[in-house]
């Protein structure tokens, strides 16, 4: 049995296909059902963000479980498996832990060292826990990943300066226009990303912030925090007619603004340009909207390029981050292997003792009780001496590759049921 991660990120696959592989909250329960219906998958967590879609599982057998995850992704994305299989990456056990610890630390993010990802990792686990599809293996892995992410940020400079996708989106808008001072901004949505962008706008000198959301009540509290206004989604077109910048990151699974709608809006404001920063995955705004005169459309690919320019200072911290992660992986694997070794050692001793007592019982009344007591003591002492060295080696090697090999060999050779 292994902990396995199978995933894809926006660097490894064309953006159009990557968007289809994103998993929103509406589709998540069905995906959990599909995954745990597999006889080779006993636990599952799905981490789907603007930069990655990853499925963490406890796999009974790697290759069948990998196939089941791949097929589930195909069903939920509508893509043929051949469209994305070559873009999938997979890691198991220590490498899976190292990968997740790196993700939680912001090493695998579009904005190096971003702080939002740690909360997204926690949320992904919480959703799986609520759905009842996690057990001790993934619980321990995700708890350890959050510990690693916090230690990285506390002991290195990876989180220096702009370290969130939402703040980077506002910085990119500022860079594109030169300033946001005096500008009117519409933020579409009131979820995590939109909230992050709205808060970042608070200190940018904007003239007006309008939060446009399907549920006005949810947006009202956020608007109050930044001194902004609220508009229902039904008024989005009229709001856009009167702003200089549209920031969007809703996480919806369909376009929120199509080409024709935006074309009509721009026709109604012929002398004003509009900057759109769309960091949603899937995208909120039709990519063809960037061809409309007066519209500048920036998306996650542009954000990745923009963020790359600011990575230099934090890049020097990568070695320090990896050192912390390596230490945390060793600690995690030592605990995980030790927890596996002790039940195995106990089960082996139980099985051997059962054989010894069974043989002793076969003697029956053929010897007197005094002789039987001597045989009992002698065989018990013999077994203790025989088992002492292999059990010591097994425990001393816990948490290492050698310990894994010894444990697997012992279990296979003696068919031990733990």
Report on this structure.
With 418 residues, the chain is an alpha/beta fold. The chain has three domains: 2-161, Glutamyl-tRNA reductase, N-terminal domain (Beta Polymerase, domain 2), CATH 3.30.460; 165-307, 3-Layer(aba) Sandwich (Rossmann fold), CATH 3.40.50; 336-414, no CATH class. It has 16 helices and ten strands. The protein has a six-stranded parallel β-sheet with strand order 7-6-5-8-9-10. Helix 8 links the parallel strand 5 (184-188) and strand 6. The longest helix is centred in the last third of the chain and has 46 residues, at 318-363. The mean pLDDT is 89.
Please give a quick description of this structure:
The chain is an alpha/beta fold and 418 residues long. It is 55% helix and 13% strand. It has 3 domains: 2-161, Glutamyl-tRNA reductase, N-terminal domain (Beta Polymerase, domain 2, 2-Layer Sandwich); 165-307, NAD(P)-binding Rossmann-like Domain (Rossmann fold), CATH 3.40.50.720; 336-414, no CATH class.
């Amino acid at each position: 049995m292994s902990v396995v991660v199978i995933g894809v990120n926006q660097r490894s696959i064309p953006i159009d296909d990557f968007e289809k592989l994103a998993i929103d909250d509406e589709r998540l329960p069905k995906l959990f059902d599909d995954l745990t219906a597999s006889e080779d998958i006993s636990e599952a967590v799905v981490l789907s963000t603007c930069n990655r879609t990853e499925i963490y599982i406890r796999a009974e057998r790697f290759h069948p479980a990998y196939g089941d995850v791949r097929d589930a992704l195909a069903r939920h994305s509508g893509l043929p498996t051949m469209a994305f299989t070559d873009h999938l990456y997979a890691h198991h056990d220590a490498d899976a832990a190292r990968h997740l610890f790196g993700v939680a630390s912001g090493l695998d993010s579009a904005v190096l060292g971003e702080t939002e990802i740690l909360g997204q990792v926690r949320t992904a686990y919480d959703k799986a826990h609520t759905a009842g599809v996690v057990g001790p293996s993934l619980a321990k892995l995700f708890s350890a990943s959050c510990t690693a992410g916090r230690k990285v940020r506390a002991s290195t400079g990876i989180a220096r300066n702009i370290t969130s996708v939402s703040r980077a989106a506002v910085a990119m808008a500022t860079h594109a226009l030169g300033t946001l001072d005096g500008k009117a901004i519409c933020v579409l949505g009131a979820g995590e990303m939109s909230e992050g962008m709205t808060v970042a706008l608070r200190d940018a000198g904007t003239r007006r912030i309008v939060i446009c959301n399907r549920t006005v009540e949810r947006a009202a509290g956020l608007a109050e925090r930044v001194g902004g206004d609220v508009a229902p989604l039904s008024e989005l077109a009229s709001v856009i007619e009167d702003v200089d910048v549209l920031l969007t990151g809703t996480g919806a699974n369909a376009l929120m603004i199509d080409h024709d709608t935006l074309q009509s809006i721009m026709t109604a404001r012929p002398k004003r340009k509009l900057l759109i920063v769309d960091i949603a995955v899937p995208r909120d705004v039709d990519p063809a909207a960037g061809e409309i005169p007066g519209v500048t459309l920036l998306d996650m690919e542009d954000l990745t390029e923009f963020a790359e320019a600011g990575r230099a200072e934090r890049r020097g911290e990568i070695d320090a981050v990896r050192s912390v992660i390596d230490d945390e992986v060793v600690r995690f694997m030592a605990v995980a292997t030790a927890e596996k070794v002790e039940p195995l050692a106990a089960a082996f001793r139980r099985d051997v003792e059962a054989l010894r007592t069974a043989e002793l019982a076969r003697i029956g009344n053929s010897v007197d009780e005094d002789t039987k007591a001597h045989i009992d003591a002698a065989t018990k002492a013999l077994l203790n001496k025989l088992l002492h060295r292999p059990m010591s080696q097994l425990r001393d090697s816990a948490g290492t590759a050698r310990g894994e090999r010894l444990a697997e060999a012992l279990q296979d050779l003696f068919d031990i049921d733990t």
